[in-house]
Structure formats: C-alpha cells, structure tokens
C-alpha cells in the first residue's frame, strides 16, 4: 500500500472520535442526524451499524462534511 493512498482507504470511526473531530457533544451529533429535530442537518453523514448495538461513521464522509462546512463559511 502506498502512503498517499492510505488517507483514501475506508475507515470507521466511533462516536467518541467523531465528538473530538467536530467539537460537538454526543447528543448534538444525534440531533443533527434526526429528521424532525430543529438541529437536523441533511448534509451530516449518516452512521451505519457495525454490530448489534454499535454504529460508526465513514471517516471519508466526515472529512468531506468538514470541508463542505469550511467552504460554506467562506
């Protein structure tokens, strides 16, 4: 594997890392993905099941979301 392709590789992150990356609380993250919530964000990446009770997020989608929000802020 080449080093420059490593960042493009699929990786799953859990809620704790997502909180650190985005600077958001657990409850805020779940409000952002909940349709009907006043904090719902249709651009926010959706989690997927990785176990019976566990969910994760695609790191590539999270990075794309951060970049989108940076561009919107400019």
UniProtKB/TrEMBL annotation:
Transmembrane segments: none annotated. It comes from the Bacteria. InterPro entries: AlpA, Prophage_regulatory_activator. Gene3D superfamilies: 1.10.238.160. Pfam families: Phage_AlpA. This is AlpA family phage regulatory protein. It comes from Pseudomonas putida (Arthrobacter siderocapsulatus).
